[in-house]
Each structure stands twice: as C-alpha cells, then as structure tokens.
C-alpha cells in the first residue's frame, strides 16, 4: 500500500504557486457548501512519522479554509495512562455537522505505538483494528465522514529531518506524535505496522490515502487535492431517503405467540416497611463504603435507568443519591436531543458525560432510547436501531475495559399499576408536572415496547454489562433490589 510513495514525487515551487489559487478557491467553495447543507461533518486524520510535516500540512489547510468552521483536534501523549476511557477524548471533540476537524494523533495512535514497542501481541492488535473499523463505520452511518491521510517518509529521512530543525537560536515547532518510540528499531517497526494497519482499516467509506512527504509542495498539494475531492463527494451526496418503518417490530414468525421477557417477572414481590427501612439503609451503607474506598479511585460507576413510565425511576435515583458523595456524582435526565446533540452521532451526548475515575454518573433514561422510543415511535429507521445494538455493546465494553462498572436497570410495572399511578399524579399538585398527554398515549403502544425491551435485553445483556430487570410494582422492593445490585456489582469489581 505504501509502494508508490517510496518513489520520488516532486512539484516545483512555480507549479505549486500556479495551482494554489484555484485549489484554494475550490476548497472554500466546497467547504461553504458543506456548511450550508449541515448534513455531515468531516474529520481529517493526519498521521505519519515525526518529521513528515504533519503540523505544516495542518497550517497549510488552515490557510486555505474558512477557519470559523474549522477545528484542530490534538491530543498530548495518547498512550499515557488516563482517568477516563481511551475513546472519551475523541468523542468529546467530534465537530458538529457542517464543520471540519483536523486531527493529529487519533484513535490509531495507541495500538500502533504499543505494537511498535512490542507491548501488544498481533492478535490483540488486529482485534483493536477491528474495533476501530466498527467505530468508523458507526461514525459514517451517523453523519461523520473521515479523510485518513498517512504522510509517508522513510525512517532515515525522518530522523535526519528531526535532527535538522534547529536553526540559529530558535527551534521550529515540530509535531512529535511518537515520542514514546525511542531509537531506530521501534520507529522502523512503526512503518511496517502502519502499512498493515492501513490495509486492515482501509474501507470503502473510509480508505487510507498515502501521501509522499519528502517534497513539501507535492505533499501539501496532494493533501489539499484529497480534501477537495472528499468535500465535493460529501456535498454531492443526495439527501438520504427516509427509511420505511418496520410494520412488525417482533422477530417471531406470525404463527408463534409474541414473547415478552417482562411477562416472566413476578410483580407480586414486596417488602414490609420495616424490612424496607433496614435493607435500604444496609445497601446505602455498602454503596457509600465502596464508592469512598481507595480502590474506587481507579474505577468509576455508570448507572443507566430505563423502565415504563411511572415505574419509579426518579424516586429510586433519589435513594441512590443519598448513598453517594454529592461532590463525586452527577445525574443526567435524558429528554429529546437538543439541536447541538442532533448535530452529532447519538452516542456523543452520553460519551461526553462519562466522568473521571473515582466518580459516578447516573442516567435517567439512556442511550437505549435508540432501540426503544426511537424505534417504537418511528424516529429512526430499522437500519439505524438495528445496528445500534452492536454500537451500544462496543460502548459499554470500552467503559468496562477502562474499569467502569456499568449497571443497567429496567423497572417494570403492570399496565394496571401504571394507570393507577397516572391517576394519582393527576390529583397531586406537585406530581402533575410528571404527567403529559404523551404518557397516556404511549400506553396504546405497550405491546410494541414489550417487544422492543425483549430484543434489547437479548442483544445487549452482556457479561460486562448485564441487564437487571426490577419488579417495581412494590416501590420498596424495587428500590432495595436496585441498590443491592449496585452494591454487589461494585463489590465484585473492586474485590
């Protein structure tokens, strides 16, 4: 894949100056069309050995584009230990639709670096590349396009360039992406490993482009031309047609009765008031002790609450809050996405709230809205919610790998109990705000939600992030089960 880049490529300064004005004009025209359409965003990944001119290419593109809709996405020492999941920093910086981000040091850095240092075996390296492929496929499906550029420079030329950056009493700033690689051996291995990675992750929607970097004018002209080609392709894409809604949200043949996993729950389970008070205090004490322990400083807790309307999510969260240090947790109630959130992939608004180690985040409704309300209400098509199961599993696996305990609850009640609680809310002044006409209307779609919940649990209850179905007909029983589950999971994770 790097073969042609090993040969000399040259563009003299006069030819570069002659082509530059029209290239700049065409780039700005295409960028303005991208801004106006606001259908997609673009991330330009610039990789290559230190000395290949990554910073120079970035600066050149800044001179050619409208900087008001352009972001630089850079990350210091991506291989260094972090107090959040490795992908968090990349998710946080995703540009909104209509904008361009230029990224130096992307999600490829850590696996390439660790493989070059022989800290990662080939099997693990290939698994990391497969995970990257899935991530990039999700970005593309969610409106984020990628232009992946590798600036090719052989290892010896890169070494000579790095040594020659000092002139007089000042030193030109150099983008050092691979500071962890000391010596010629790891840097030479990086080149071979990078070619393997480029082959493995060069897909139809996100291919790698190898740019010879020995000649600065040729390098910059080719990078600019690749960007222009990508922008033109993006703005020429037709408006996506709306996906047809699935007429039957279940997966069972029509002749078979519809199965609901919620129907297996024994909703008659209950606790006496005395047992409730005793067990609630016990589980709150366990959670307090565990989340304040020194071992929790290198871990984190992510709790997601889903359930039927009026199933008791808010009151259960209140009992959990009382077990946590208010300085070290946040609760995020999830409603319809804002304009800022709709301008990015749906997981962005959850990734950006993942806390540092030693802290807890509680989601009152969660990323599962994609396969629940968005599915049932027709807010996204079958292709979108169908691929979301795998995307969610990847998200939760990344949290678990970064030592976060992921606890997920579905709070279940019967239709009769829900109606009783709705009627109670209508008569209690301070509870009326919790009830809307939408809540009554959603009761008509109870079977559709049951089918969606069943498939959700089947496809996203994993070893690292299992679902806990909570019998919440009796609020006392449900609250204690939730807190006990959290305490048990923390205890198992922290040892």
From TrEMBL:
Catalytic activity: [phosphate](n) + ATP = [phosphate](n+1) + ADP
Residue ranges annotated for the Polyphosphate kinase-2-related domain, each copy included: 12-231, 271-492
Keyword Lipid metabolism: no
InterPro entries named among the record's database cross-references: P-loop_NTPase, PolyP_AMP_Tfrase, PPK2-related
Annotated keywords: ATP synthesis
Highest rank taxon of the organism: Bacteria
Membrane recorded as keyword: no
Pfam families documented for this protein: PPK2
NCBIfam families hit by this protein: poly_P_AMP_trns
Full protein name: Polyphosphate:AMP phosphotransferase
UniProt source species: Xanthobacter aminoxidans
Gene name of the encoded protein: pap
